[in-house]
Write a structure and sequence with these properties.
Blueprint: E1 3-7, E2 13-18, H1 21-24, H2 30-43, H3 103-119, E3 123-126, H4 136-145, E4 152-156, H5 161-168, E5 173-177, H6 183-188, E6 191-195, H7 196-206
Parallel strand pairs: 1-3, 3-6, 4-5, 4-6
Antiparallel strand pairs: 1-2
Helix pairs in contact: 2-3, 4-5
Length: about 210
Amino acid sequence: MPKTALYNMEGATVGEVELSDAIFAAPIHEAAMHLVVRSYLAAQRQGNQSALTRGQVRGGGRKIYRQKGTGNARHHGNRAPQFKHGGVVFAPKPRDYVVGVNRKVRRLAFRSAMTSRFNDGDIIVVDSMNLKEGKTKLMAEALKKLNATRKALVVLPGRDENVIRATANLAEAKTTYVNTLNVYDILNAGKIVLTKDAKESVEEVYAE
């Protein structure tokens, strides 16, 4: 069973914690992670882009000149794609970009991502994440002491208004909860800061 240091908000080591083999020492499946990231990014797309095809553009019913004898190419209306104000070839239409991924693959990708980040030394476990006030300065100081100043992902077991408010104005940090933690955020983060309670919740929810 892997182990890692347990820190406090001052950046000092206060002990050691054991990590679940199922989450932090799992086989790394790159294909599963790639599929889940694709699914996540595709779901961010609105899919409401639209353009008119040649048959939908207004006008162009009359043949622009006779078929033969002009020396020009043969055309019908002036709403063909090559003309100004013409329709669009293969025009985009509203569509759903969802990439379906089943539950087992999502779990496999999650465990692979967490293991990968742990192997890279990017998982930081703190005993707690408590702020007296929701001040950006306090959160910035805490992350600096934890050496997590670049793209820090703070994972909380539940909603904490002070932590959320203090992190909101930090360009290089964001908060998330155990139940909203996803593979894209895990792989995209510079450092992942887990509270001890959040770590235990992750192990409980995703170890199956």
